[in-house]
Each structure stands twice: as structure tokens, then as C-alpha cells.
Amino acid sequence: MGERRYIRPGTFDRLFNALTAGLARAGVSVWGSRILAVRGRKSGEWRTVPVNLLESGGLQYLVAPRGETEWVRNLRASGEGEIRLGARRQPFRATEMGAAEKIPILRAYLARWWFEVKRFFELSGLDAPDSELARIASRHPVFRIETTS
Question: Positive or negative CA dihedral for 40, 46, 52, 56?
């Protein structure tokens, strides 16, 4: 899994997430945003959170810029969930990726959302070498998701 690290959202983050989630529930994606729905590992109830869905090389990925979040723990426990946008529901199975295979995915994620997430990644910049990405990879869980019916 990697180094346990979690960055708690501040007031601005909570407001931004609420706005983004509201738009996604209404069917409006802001720069790739979606609603991740995953069952709680203890309660079994659906838990939702806005996420940035990365599509790269014909595959889809979820990256946790804040680290070991509740959605990460729940997804590890259940191995499945839904990606939602408006009324659309996309059930999926998730596979957590190892540190070495994360590097190109983290690079693609950062290229797309650097302006939004750079403060969560301890990097010299967007063009950080692979060695820097390898150093921080264990702090940022990445899941490849495969659509199910």
C-alpha cells in the first residue's frame, strides 16, 4: 500500500468540493470531475465524494492526491464502486497499482490537474523527474478501474 499519509481538507477545499459535487450530481463535469460512490467498509452504506477521473491510454484511473482518505480505505475493502455523473452510474472493479507502475499515471494526472492538486504533491514542479515521482508515489494511492455491467 505505501506510506500512510492524509491531508485533511480545509474550509476552501470543502466549499470547492461541495460545489464540484453539486455540479456532478446535476450532470455537469468540471474538468473531468465525477462522483465516486463506494460502500463504507464498516456501515455498508454508500459514501460519495467528488473525484477527478483520469482517462489515459484507453483506461480509467482514480488518484488520491490527499493520500489515505476514507474513500481509499473503503475502496480497498470493497474492491468496487460506481462513478456517477448526473443520473449515469458506471459500476466498476478497482485494482490498486504498485509504486513503480504509478509513475506514468501520476504524471498524466498532474499534467491535467496540476493547478488544483500541486499543493498535495511534494515535487519540484510539473516537470519533476521520475525519481521525484518514485519518491512520493507511495503517498498517493492509485486505482485502475474497469467497468462492470
Answer: positive
Domain map of the chain by residue range?
A: 11-147
For the segment 11-34, the average pLDDT, to the nearest whole number, is 79
pLDDT tens digits, residue range 78-102?
999 999 999 999 999 999 999 889 9
Q: Which CATH superfamily is domain 11-147 in?
A: Electron Transport, Fmn-binding Protein; Chain A (2.30.110.10)
2 in the Ramachandran plot: left (φ > 0), alpha (ψ -120 to 50) or beta? left
Three-state helix/strand/coil letters over 75-125:
HHHHCEEEEEECCEEEEEEEEECCHHHHHHHHHHHHHHHHHHHHHHCCCCC
Q: What does the pLDDT read at residue 87? A: 93
Burial (CB count <10 Å: 0-12, 13-18, 19+), residue 93: middle
- pLDDT higher than threshold 60 for residue 66: yes
